[in-house]
């Protein structure tokens, strides 16, 4: 019984320290990037343990904590899936990304916040993808500022 209580106390302390650090990071992030961020209080937290390619929802994804990950968007009824797929292909290849964003700007703005679309086009932001753009899984488009700080994540599914 004594070891159970000690374990419980240790776990409680661990999570309370992590929560404090997490809240401090959120407050700092909100103060320094408010004009280019989503509304932090309504978003999810993107986490990635680095497994490649990994399993969505286990090794990476957006989880129910405050952060900078938008709620998933199902593209099919909203935007042209083929155009979004072409953009994701360019992001995955790492070639012609800004041009692809520019060519498909109107469609992208239907599913991705305008500041990220225009930021990639004008070179203020870079974008990377993790995941697959299919009917059952998400492409997680991650946007980074010039300091390579992740500023937003947009999960998209067909």
Write the topology of this structure:
Elements lengths: L1 H32 L11 E4 L11 E4 L9 E2 L6 H13 L3 H7 L1 H4 L5 H8 L4 E6 L7 E6 L5 E8 L1
Parallel strand pairs: 3-6
Antiparallel strand pairs: 1-2, 4-5, 5-6
What does it look like?
By secondary structure, this protein is α+β, with helices and mostly antiparallel strands. It has helices at 2-33, 81-93, 97-103, 105-108, 114-121; strands at 45-48, 60-63, 73-74, 126-131, 139-144, 150-157. It has two domains: 1-36; 38-157, no CATH class. It has a four-stranded mixed sheet. A two-stranded antiparallel sheet has the order 1-2. It contains five helices and six strands.
- What is the domain total for the residues? 2
Strand order of the largest sheet: 3-6-5-4
E-strand count:
6
- Number of helical segments? 5
Strand content: 15-25%
Shape descriptor reads: globular
List keywords for this structure.
globular; disordered N terminus; two-stranded antiparallel sheet; single chain; 6 strands; alpha+beta; 2 domains; 158 residues
Short description, anyone?
The chain is of the alpha+beta class. It has five helices and six strands.
